[in-house]
Design a protein that fits this description.
By secondary structure, the protein is mostly helical. Helices cover 69% and strands 1% of the residues. Strand 1 and strand 2 form a beta hairpin.
Length: 502
């Protein structure tokens, strides 16, 4: 309990300062137009300020000044880290070329090595021991530059570099506590508090980025702390910091080898980093990728702590973790799609995983998935075409059926028009032939009829005979030119009667 109370101020002060300064850094970045540039390898969209490292740097510097009376080595670390921070800040503002950035890193490393007199004493590799000061200084220099760039390279997703650095600094602080190094504990607590104060603004979706100034400052500080406390171990010098920093170190080395094999420059950016593989190739998404890398970093940190207390158990744990990392690299083709020695052996023995034409399993699986998606898309197109044809046939049927129904409905809905009554033609009844004797009798009885002029009488006689009834018995056809004798006699009688009437 007393330990926690004693450590709490070293953590809370930088945490509060960083948490309070991030909004100011954001406003300054917006006014000055210091935004993260979008390119092929970035995954963010929009204008996001990239000088969040300013809050971390000020929080660390103020807390170290207030809470700790620094010695020569710590002063050397702060001076070198300040040079690195300034170079990163200028890069965030003006986009410095790679050579200029390296010059600032070299200057910061020399300041720490020679002003603070901080370097390895001896180099242990298994049973070998190297104490040559030039070699030792050279390895210390490479370590500072390498870790600085490793943390900067892994800063590709929201909260990734800041979260990993928090885990690393806490682990170094725990190991420093067990080694009895209070200076390492204090520096680790202050740096952890400053980073955690910034992390809420940087976690996905980020409102501000740590930038090159913040990423390089964190990486350089962690590398310097490693030289400060882990000068010797039983197996290999800097073995524990290498375990804790396994993710950024391995990602940087793989990127160098991959770009060399492709004929690219080492400084040329690409989308082959570990976080890109997880997020894009394995389709884990932004947040899950960051969480997975947090867990893996924590596992290697735990392996480092276990190795400090129990080297044999730690070696077994480290072997399993490294084997899993190698299988992941082969499975995803991070170095080269055709680099998979262990998986090729497993494939020959068990037939798993499937690899076609020397490709990595992920590409093979993706190709199969793409083929399945193409088949599914083709089937959907066929179904849509069939549906369209069926709909067309149904429409044609409805069009054929609808006109008759529409006409009937129209006739029902139309108002009834009064049709003019058509005069039906009177049926002409065939006039019966009258005997001349009867007609003479009627004429004698009706004297008015006798007074009609001849013309009217003649008109009546000129009328055509009505058509005979269909039900009347058929008469014999009379040949023209040969009238019957009876008809001649009747016509003679009628003429006589007319004359007598006159």
């Amino acid at each position: 309990m007393n330990l926690i109370k004693g450590a709490l101020p070293y953590f809370l002060l930088p945490f509060v300062i960083s948490l309070a300064l991030v909004p100011f850094a954001k406003r300054i970045g917006l006014r000055l137009g210091i935004y993260a540039m979008e390119n092929k390898r970035t995954v963010h969209h929009g204008k996001i300020v990239r000088i969040g490292g300013v809050a971390i740097y000020i929080a660390v510097l103020v807390s170290m000044t207030v809470l700790w009376r620094a010695d020569l080595k710590l002063n050397g670390i702060l001076i070198g880290a300040s040079v690195i921070f300034i170079g990163g800040l200028l890069d965030d503002i003006y986009n410095l070329p790679p050579k200029v950035k390296i010059l600032f890193q070299v200057a910061g490393a020399f300041a720490t090595l020679f002003i603070g007199n901080l370097s390895l004493d001896t180099l242990h590799i298994l049973s070998m021991e190297i104490s040559n000061p030039i070699i030792v200084k050279g390895i210390s220099f490479v370590w500072l530059i390498g870790i600085t760039n490793a943390i900067n390279l892994i800063d590709g997703l929201d909260g990734l570099s800041s979260g990993i650095c928090t885990i690393v600094t806490m682990t170094i602080g725990i190991l420093g506590f067990f080694m009895g190094r209070r200076d390492i504990c204090v520096m680790a607590l202050i740096l952890s508090g400053a980073i955690l104060g910034f992390l809420p603004y940087n976690f996905h979706p980020a409102s501000i980025f740590v930038g090159d100034c913040g990423a390089q400052f964190m990486g350089f500080s962690i590398a310097a702390m490693s030289l400060l406390g882990f000068k010797t171990t039983a197996l290999i010098t800097l073995g524990l910091p290498i375990l804790v920093l396994f993710i950024p170190i391995s990602d940087t080395l793989i990127a160098i080898v991959r770009r060399k094999l492709k004929g690219q420059k080492i400084t040329e950016a690409d989308r082959g980093h570990l976080h890109h593989i997880l997020m894009i190739k394995l389709k884990l998404g932004h947040r899950k990728t960051v969480e997975v890398l947090y867990v893996v970093t924590a596992l290697f940190a735990l392996a480092a702590i276990v190795t400090w207390f129990n080297p044999q158990l730690g070696i077994v744990m480290v072997f399993l973790l490294v084997l899993g990392a190698d299988l992941f690299i082969e499975y995803t083709g991070m170095i080269n799609p055709k680099f998979h020695p262990i998986l090729s052996l497993v494939n020959r023995l068990t037939g798993w995983p499937a690899m076609e034409n020397g490709e990595d399993p992920v590409d093979t699986i993706r190709r199969e998935e793409e083929a399945q998606e193409a088949r599914a898309a083709a089937e959907e197109l066929k179904k849509e075409e069939l549906k369209k044809e069926e709909s067309k046939t149904e429409e044609t049927k409805q069009e054929e059926e609808n006109p008759a129904e529409e006409k009937a409905d129209d006739e029902k809905n139309r108002p009834e028009e009064k049709k003019p009554e058509e005069k039906q033609p009177d049926e002409k009844k065939p006039e019966e032939k009258k005997n001349p004797a009867e007609e003479n009798k009627k004429e004698e009885a009706n004297p008015e009829h006798m007074a009609e002029p001849k013309k009217k009488r003649g008109r009546k006689k000129k009328q055509k005979d009505p058509e005979p009834r269909t039900d009347a018995p058929e008469k014999e056809e009379v040949k023209p030119g040969k009238p019957k004798k009876k008809e001649k006699k009747e016509s003679k009688k009628e003429e006589k009667e007319e004359k007598s009437a006159d």
